[in-house]
């Protein structure tokens, strides 16, 4: 009777579980499942249902705990997908991969999850094969999602592995497919095409979301945030930093829930700020430290963020923090260049150039594959210290770059600056020899000599010009002969060769001069009249008129006589008087004339009172209001000039000498004696 009642209770509970599952009420279903397990704790179906209910409620850790607790009952064949899914959602990606691979039967659900796991592990080739297999062997309503995932894998390959994406033939009917296609184009550097794809993705996104009446404009903008973020990234790559910065800040104001998107945008703003606006960068760097960011971004994205954190610490003079971050990055990626370069830059900021060079040298010795870039940095530090010769030695130790035209040009310039012409010529010689050694190519056991490459010939010519410039005629002759041998029709090279031989072996120069083309062949057939009458001519000859009769004879008679120009009459002053003799010194500056007595001081200075307080000046009478026009005229003050009537003959000042010294005497200022104290 007891067993019967328990069975009836269990049946009722199972009915409740079934009904709640169909309604999506997994919290209530979980309660019923727990009651069933109280009746039968090892019921396999009940345990499976409990795991599913916990997963649906987002309790992945608890669900995994149930699976691991009942391993004897819940074997891998029964619960493999649920266990792998819990591990995947808990970001235990390696464990999820092992669980999937250990399953005896690979169901469609496991294959779908397998593709997601491979994508998170950045094994894009395997992931691409997995999704292709799924699309080929499955037909259900999730085909569009699989194609979207497939396009995401192709975009990741193009972006992070620089693999040329193949045309999958996917119809870009959704905004997700357009977005992934744009990302693939960005990886190829086709920025303009990528921008058009993103604009199409934005349009499709708005259309699809606006059809749902429950979706608000804020929801649409939140969904478009990732598309706008990619648009801003393209603008940044194109150098439109102001537009990119404005769009980045607009996205941050929306406060999207995607911590990965916020971290990427904050990092890109920091790269725009560089060593400027560091306070804004310090605020933005907090967004890159949000919880869960490490699970949303790829390894290269996370590495780039850490590099920028170290650089920001250097720009903000946080030396210890910079060293700590760069050392951590170097331990994670020992062969990477940036950590050691950041450390060297920090040492240089601390004026420890020798220590920075030693650090770079140690890295170059440990990682020969990256030695070239490190040695270039070492040479730059030596040049900054003024050790140009040592910098040249470092550059010449980079064997794989010795023959490059850029390296040859740099070394020759540096040696010329140090006036070491022999070393500069040696650099040219080594580069030319390198090309000579690799000129021969083996073909079916025979040594075939190919014509010299344009770079090789260019180096020989530059070497010859350099030697001629520095007076090394004999050394330049061999280079010029080699160039002329390659191209006997090169007149310029032949002329240089003759010029060089003329100083060393004149007889040889005469022999070579016979190879110069004749003057007839060198003459240019140019129609002078047509050239002068052309639209772009700066000088146009006047067309001569027809000369006949007397005019023609006159023209012939005056063949060599130059035509005289008419003299223009000089302009006379307005007040010119021919009866008055002009001032012979009128052409001299006023200061240089014999009668110059200096500039007169202003009236105001003459009226300034000098003496004790309360005393009156000579000019005070002029300010007296009692002295009116009716008052009798006073006698003129000494030195005052009499008024001149308007009808008198006025002699212009330019045509006469002054009568004498000015009437008023010049007041001389008394010089202060040395050491005397002025003031009251």
TrEMBL record:
Cellular component, GO, one term: signal recognition particle, endoplasmic reticulum targeting
TPR repeats at which positions?
225-258
List this protein's GO terms for biological process. Answer: SRP-dependent cotranslational protein targeting to membrane
Domain Signal recognition particle SRP72 subunit RNA-binding residue range list: 542-598
Pfam families documented for this protein: SRP72 (PF08492), SRP_TPR_like (PF17004), TPR_8 (PF13181)
Entry annotated with the keyword Ribonucleoprotein: yes
Q: Where is this region: Disordered?
A: 541-680
Is Ribosomal protein there in the keyword field? no
Q: Where is the composition biased (Basic residues)?
A: 562-572, 664-680
Kindly state which keywords UniProt assigns to this record, in alphabetical order: Coiled coil, Cytoplasm, Endoplasmic reticulum, Repeat, Ribonucleoprotein, Signal recognition particle, TPR repeat
Coiled coil regions, renumbered to chain: 93-148
Compositionally biased residues, Basic and acidic residues: 574-595
For bias type Low complexity, the affected ranges are 626-643
The molecular function terms of the Gene Ontology recorded here are: 7S RNA binding; ribosome binding
Where in or outside the cell it occurs: the entry states: Cytoplasm; Endoplasmic reticulum
Q: Which InterPro entries match?
A: Signal_recog_part_SRP72_RNA-bd, SRP72, SRP72_TPR-like, TPR-like_helical_dom_sf, TPR_rpt
SMART domains found in the cross-reference section: TPR
Q: Which family does the similarity line name? A: Belongs to the SRP72 family.
Protein name as catalogued: Signal recognition particle subunit SRP72
């Amino acid at each position: 009777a007891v067993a019967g009642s328990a069975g009836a209770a269990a049946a009722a509970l199972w009915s409740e579980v079934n009904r709640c599952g169909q309604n999506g009420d997994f919290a209530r279903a979980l309660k019923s499942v727990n009651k069933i397990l109280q009746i039968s704790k090892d019921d396999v179906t009940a345990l499976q249902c409990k795991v599913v209910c916990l997963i649906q409620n987002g309790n992945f850790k608890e669900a995994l705990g149930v699976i691991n607790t009942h391993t004897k009952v819940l074997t891998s064949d029964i619960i493999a997908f649920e266990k792998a899914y819990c591990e995947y959602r808990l970001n235990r990606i390696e464990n999820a991969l092992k669980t999937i691979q250990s399953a005896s039967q690979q169901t469609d659900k496991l294959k779908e999850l397998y593709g997601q796991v491979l994508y998170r592990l950045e094994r894009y080739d395997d992931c691409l094969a997995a999704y292709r297999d799924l699309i080929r062997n499955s037909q259900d309503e999730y085909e569009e999602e699989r194609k979207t995932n497939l396009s995401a894998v192709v975009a990741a390959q193009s972006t992070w592995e620089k693999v040329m994406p193949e045309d999958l033939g996917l119809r870009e009917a959704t905004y997700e497919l357009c977005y992934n296609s744009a990302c693939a184009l960005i990886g190829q550097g086709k920025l303009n095409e990528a921008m058009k794809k993103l604009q199409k993705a934005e349009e499709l996104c708005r259309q699809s979301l606006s059809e749902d009446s429950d979706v608000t404009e804020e929801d649409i903008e939140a969904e478009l945030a990732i598309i706008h973020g990619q648009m801003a990234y393209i603008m940044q790559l194109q150098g439109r930093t102001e537009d990119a910065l404005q769009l980045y800040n607009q996205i941050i104001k929306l406060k999207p829930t995607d911590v990965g998107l916020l971290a990427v945008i904050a990092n890109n703003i920091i790269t725009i700020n560089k060593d400027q606006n560091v306070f804004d960068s310090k605020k933005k760097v907090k967004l890159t430290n949000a919880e869960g960011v490490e699970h949303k971004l790829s390894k290269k994205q996370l590495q780039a963020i850490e590099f920028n954190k170290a650089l920001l610490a250097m720009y903000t003079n946080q030396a210890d923090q910079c060293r700590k971050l760069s050392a951590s990055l170097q331990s994670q990626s020992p062969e990477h260049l940036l950590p050691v370069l950041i450390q060297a830059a920090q040492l240089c900021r601390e004026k420890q150039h020798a220590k920075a060079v030693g650090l770079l040298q140690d890295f170059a010795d440990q990682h020969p594959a990256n030695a070239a870039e490190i040695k270039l940095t070492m040479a730059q530090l030596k040049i900054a210290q003024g050790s140009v010769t040592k910098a040249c030695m470092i550059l010449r130790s980079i064997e794989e770059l010795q023959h490059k035209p850029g390296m040859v040009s740099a070394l020759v310039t540096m040696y010329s600056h140090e006036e070491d012409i022999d070393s500069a010529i040696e650099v040219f010689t080594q580069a030319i020899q390198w090309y000579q050694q690799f000129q021969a190519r083996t073909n079916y056991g025979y040594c075939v000599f190919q014509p010299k490459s344009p770079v090789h010939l260019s180096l020989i010519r530059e070497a010859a010009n350099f030697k001629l410039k520095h007076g090394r005629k004999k050394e330049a002759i061999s280079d010029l002969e080699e160039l002329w041998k390659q191209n006997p029709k090169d007149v310029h090279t032949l002329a240089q060769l003759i010029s060089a031989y003329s100083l060393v072996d004149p007889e040889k120069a005469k022999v070579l001069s016979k190879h110069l083309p004749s003057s007839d062949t060198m003459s240019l057939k140019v129609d002078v009249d047509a050239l002068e009458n052309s639209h772009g001519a700066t000088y146009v000859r006047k067309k001569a008129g027809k000369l006949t009769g007397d005019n023609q004879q006159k023209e012939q008679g005056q063949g060599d006589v130059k035509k005289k120009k008419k003299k223009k009459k000089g302009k006379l002053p307005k007040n010119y008087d021919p009866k008055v003799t002009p001032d012979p010194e009128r052409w001299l500056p006023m200061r240089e004339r014999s009668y110059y007595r200096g500039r007169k001081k202003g009236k105001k200075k003459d009226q300034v009172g000098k003496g004790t307080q309360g005393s009156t000046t000579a000019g005070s009478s002029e300010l007296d209001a009692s002295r009116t026009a009716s008052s009798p005229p006073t006698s003129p003050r000494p030195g005052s000039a009499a008024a001149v009537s308007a009808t008198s003959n006025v002699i212009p000042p330019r045509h006469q000498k002054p009568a004498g010294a000015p009437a008023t005497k010049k007041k001389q200022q008394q010089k202060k004696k040395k050491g005397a104290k002025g003031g009251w």
